[in-house]
Design brief:
Belongs to the binding-protein-dependent transport system permease family. It comes from Nonomuraea thailandensis. It is found in: Cell membrane. By secondary structure, the chain is an all-alpha fold. Helices cover about 70% and strands about 0% of the residues. It starts with a helix and ends in an 8-residue tail after the last helix.
């Protein structure tokens, strides 16, 4: 019996060895190196960087541009998950329970799911270039063209520092919402229809059906969506770097932490300092994930 258990453990370990080794080499090792690099003044050219301790982290405390980027990430951290989840839940509920009887989807719901999911097929850079054209400040812009035709002054969606951040947020929501519509639809499909029918027999309206039945049963899925969207909000690099003016402008009004890490590493060749910024971003991201999972924890509802 003991020998069979040993052989089974050896068999499992033989399958796990290769992926664990690869993960250690390509994921864990670079992260450890980044922590070490954050305590050096390496500029990407010297073979042996100078160890300077915590000087880079002291410099981070006085970096006004980086802390402006942090505020933008925190704004996205609050707004992006909230807006995306609300919109996605609304459409998923409509597609799956919006029929005339209230327990079935609307006609053509499968087609609508494909349409909602379509932005996920596009590469992030394509989305950024696409919305550059949508936000163009002249008559060829998809939004400003009709406004100018009506005699209204064009809006600087990307050139006005007071509007640019909200334009970036809108693009991120547009890109993300389709995936979570499909995710919540899958969660709704796993809930027995008997639950909704019983609630309707007891006199539950659509409002009660959503907040008392649907949302509690989907809470685990919503929790996962919130964490994933929070991680997306902590990054948002590609959209900001490709779509906005001066890769985070105007006047740093759209820059995010990942953009400042890239700028310092490959623009100013301050790889040690960029690693320190990356460590700070890593700590923010891990802290958010732990805090979100703790605050949103609740008892699992069985059905």
């Amino acid at each position: 019996m003991l020998f069979n258990r040993y052989r089974r453990g050896l068999f499992i370990a033989s399958f796990l060895a290769a992926p664990v080794i690869l993960y250690a080499i390509y994921v864990i090792s670079p992260n450890i190196q980044a922590f070490y690099m954050a305590m050096t003044d390496w500029r990407g050219v010297s073979a042996t960087p100078n160890f300077i301790g915590l000087e880079n982290f002291q410099r981070v405390l006085g970096d006004s541009v980086f802390w402006k980027a942090v505020t933008h990430n925190l704004g996205l951290l609050v707004l992006l998950p909230a807006i995306t989840i609300i919109i996605a839940l609304f459409f998923a509920y409509l597609l799956n329970l919006g029929g005339s009887k209230g327990v079935s989807g609307i006609r053509g719901s499968t087609f609508y799911r494909v349409v909602f999911f379509f932005p996920q097929v596009l590469a992030v850079t394509i989305v950024a270039v696409l919305f550059q054209q949508v936000f163009r400040p002249d008559g060829s812009g998809m939004l400003n063209g009709p406004l100018m035709a009506l005699g209204i002054e064009p809006v600087g969606f990307l050139s006005n520092s007071g509007i640019a951040f909200w334009s970036v947020l809108g693009v991120l929501v547009w890109q993300a919402v389709g995936f979570y519509v499909v995710l919540f639809s899958a969660g709704l499909a796993g809930i027995p229809r008997d639950v909704f029918e019983a609630a309707q027999i007891d006199g539950a309206n659509r409002f009660t059906l959503f907040f008392r039945i649907t949302l509690p049963l989907l809470w685990d899925t919503v929790q996962v969506a919130w964490v994933y969207l929070g991680i997306l909000a902590m990054d948002a690099f590609a959209i900001v770097w490709v779509m906005t003016l001066q890769q985070g402008g105007p006047d740093w009004s759209t820059t995010v932490m990942a953009a400042e890490i890239y700028r310092n590493a490959f623009g100013y060749f301050r790889f040690g300092y960029a690693s320190a910024l990356g460590v700070v971003m890593f700590l923010f991201t891990v802290g958010f994930a732990i805090l979100s999972l703790r605050l949103s924890r609740r008892e699992r509802i069985e059905y």
